[in-house]
Amino acid sequence: MRPGAAVVPAFAALGFVFLLVPIAYTVLFSFNDGGKTNLVWRGFTLDAWRNPCGAPRVCSALVGSLQVGLLATLVATALGTLLAVALVRARFRGRGAVNLLVLLPMTTPEVVLGAALVSQFLSLRVPLGFGTVVVAHVMFCLSFVVVAVKARVATLDPALEQAAADLYASPWQTFWRVTFPLLLPGIGAAALLAFSLSFDDFIVTNFTSGGFETFPKFVYVSATRGIPPQANVISSAMFVLALLVVVLVRVASRARRRR
C-alpha cells in the first residue's frame, strides 16, 4: 500500500470527527446532572429525558419553531414547485432576470437579509412576531426549493407529457397524473431542505421575530448561563429523527430500484 493512499481516508476521518464532535457533546450533556447551568459534567442522569419540558420555555420555543417550519415549508414548497416548472418549461420575457432574482436570497448574507426585512416591516408598520418570521422564512426557503425542483424538472422526458396529451388528457390531468408523481421525489427533498433551513435559522429570525421565540433563539439566550439539559435532549431527538428520515428514504429508494 502506497503511503499516499492513506492520506485521503485519514483526512476524511478527521472531517467526520470534526463534524460529529459537537453532536456527540450535545448528546452527552443531555444526560448531565447539570441543573440550570449545564456547563460542567456533574454526573449521569435520565431526568432531562424523562421530563424534556422541565426547563422554562424550552417546549414552547420548540413548538414555535415547528409551527414556523411547517407553515414556511408548505408555502415555499408549493410556490417554489410552480415557479421551478415555469422557469424550466415556459418561455417568457424576463426569464433570465427571474432566475437571477430567485438566487439572490441564497447569495445574500443573512445579516443583510434580516436587516432589510426588519426595516421593511417597520416602515410598513407591521408588528414583528409569528407572521413576520413565516414571511421571512418563506422568502429564503423559496430559493432553495426552486433550485432543487428545477434540477428534477430538467431531467423529465417531455415525451411522457406529450403521450398523455395524445391520450386526450387535459393539462390539469397531465400535471397531476404524470408530471407531479415524477416530480414528487424532488419536491420531497426540497421540502425537507426547506424545513431544516427554517428550523435551524437564527439570524433572520432574530431580526424579524420581535417577542416571538423559536428554539434557536432560546438556545442562544440560554448559552450565556449554560444550555439546559432539556435543550440538549430536544436537539438530540431532532438529530435522531433526521437520521431516521434519511435512512428510511435510502431504504425506500433501494427497494424501488430492485423492483
Verbal overview:
The protein is mostly helical and 259 residues long. It has helices at 7-29, 47-50, 58-89, 95-107, 110-123, 130-154, 158-166, 171-200, 203-208, 215-222, 229-258. It starts with 6 loop residues before the first helix and ends with a helix. The model has no long low-confidence stretch (mean pLDDT 87).
Gist?
This protein is an all-alpha fold.
List keywords for this structure.
single chain; 259 residues; mainly alpha; 11 helices; 0% strand; ABC transporter permease; transmembrane
What's the main sheet like?
A: none
Residue share in β-strands: under 5%
Query: Helix/strand/pairing class, anyone?
Result: mainly alpha
Continuous helix count: 11
Oligomer: single chain
Q: Low-confidence parts, pLDDT < 50 over ≥5 residues?
A: none
The radius of gyration is 22 Å
Question: Helical percent range?
Answer: over 70%
Estimate the global geometry from the Cα principal axes: globular
Question: What is the topology?
Answer:
Blueprint: H1 7-29, H2 47-50, H3 58-89, H4 95-107, H5 110-123, H6 130-154, H7 158-166, H8 171-200, H9 203-208, H10 215-222, H11 229-258
